[in-house]
TrEMBL record:
GO molecular function terms listed in the Swiss-Prot or TrEMBL record: hydrolase activity; nuclease activity; transferase activity
Domain TRAM span(s) in chain numbering: 281-342
Domain of life: Bacteria
Stretches that traverse the bilayer: 9-26, 32-52, 64-85, 91-110
Name this protein carries in UniProt: Twitching motility protein PilT
Keyword Hydrolase: yes
Length: 353
């Protein structure tokens, strides 16, 4: 009951106020029914007020300010027009003209004022000021969201990183920590791909949406969609500006975006560079020199090690223990415990260890 106390109070006051006004003007002539009708009319206006309050509460502050200023300007212009036409008309037509112009211009003022104020540079100043104040008030909580504990640097995802798919592998292994921020402009790009008439693009978009769903489950609340947008800027510049605003790193596989971000001083996590750094030091077909240290598990196998400690299993090298051999890598075996290199003999060097 306490939750709806003020709403109930407003409706009660509206009823008695409406009933009181109708009582004063109509009770003597038309009786009690008109008094009750006045009270019900007041309740109806109260309900409309509560409905408008619910809608306005969801609007950003800047839109409310812009709409209010637009309404004031619209009503002032309507009054000016009405005053001008007083010279030519009077009575009901004057009232009608003022009412219609006030309604039309007031509506235009609200709609255009709420939208156009976003294009004024000062709006960005107020947005940043509000975010800074919020971050001070909510300390030690992250300035990005009260839901995020400040345990890691925020990371902003771009379209290429999501479509690439390898980001999910990094997330599941714990190499990529949250919070992750997904700009709505990127989500809209992916949705456009998923709705494309081109089968290849559609498949990419749908796969990216599925990946985002898995990322959301993996990060358990630390993947958040952000609505900030910057008018009249290309998508790449919007991402760079978002990274600067949130002090975030940019996760991407886009080469050009990577270079542009570095020019602006934005730190980039390039998935391609990470996987390039983690690629094997040896690959099938490579020629390496190895010393056979011991015999292997299988028949006639010899075992040696690379400088980084990787085991090398050489076929038909059991009898060459202690010697340095030139061997050719045949294949690699990867496992959670590491990797094993399998190789074949090329020739035996004539010197011992």
């Amino acid at each position: 009951m306490r939750k709806y106390f003020f709403q109930s109070l407003l409706l009660g006051i509206s009823f008695f106020l409406g009933a009181g006004i109708f009582y004063y003007f109509y009770y003597a002539e038309r009786g009690l029914p008109w008094v009750i009708a006045g009270g019900l009319l007041g309740v109806a206006l109260g309900i409309i007020t509560l409905y408008l309050e619910e809608k306005i509460r969801k609007l950003p502050l800047l839109k409310i300010v812009g709409g209010s200023l637009g309404l004031i300007l619209g009503l002032a212009l309507a009054k000016l027009i009405s005053s001008f036409f007083e010279i030519f008309t009077a009575g009901v037509w004057q009232v009608f003209l003022y009412a219609m112009s006030a309604l039309g211009l007031g509506y235009l003022g609200i709609m255009l004022g709420g939208k156009k104020i976003e294009e004024i540079v000062i709006s960005e100043f107020f947005e940043r000021l509000g975010e800074k104040l919020a971050s001070k008030i909510s300390t030690p909580v992250s300035s990005i969201s009260k839901k995020f504990a400040r345990k890691g640097t925020p990371k902003i995802l771009d379209t290429s990183a999501i479509i690439d798919g390898r980001i999910l592998e990094l997330a599941k292994t714990g190499w990529l920590e949250g919070p992750l921020l997904l700009p709505r402009i990127i989500l809209e790009e992916i949705q456009m791909l998923a709705d494309s008439t081109d089968p290849a693009k559609r498949a990419k978009g749908r796969r990216a949406l599925d990946l985002l769903k898995e990322l959301k489950e993996t990060f358990k609340g630390e993947l958040r969609i952000i609505d900030q947008n910057y008018k009249n800027l290309p998508t790449d510049e919007k991402l760079i500006k978002l990274c600067s605003e949130f002090s975030a790193k940019l996760v991407t596989t886009d080469y050009n975006l990577n270079k542009m971000s570095q020019l602006y001083g934005v730190e980039v996590l390039n998935i391609n560079e990470l996987f390039l750094a983690l690629r094997p030091s040896v690959r099938p077909g490579d020629l390496i020199t190895i010393q056979i240290i011991k015999e292997g598990k299988e028949r006639e196998q010899g075992v040696g090690y690379l400088e980084d400690g990787t085991m090398v299993v050489v076929e038909n090298a059991k009898h060459l223990i202690g010697k340095h051999l030139d061997v050719v890598v045949s294949h690699l075996l990867h496992s959670p415990t590491g990797r094993i290199v399998f190789a074949q003999l090329r020739e035996v060097k004539t010197f011992n260890a």
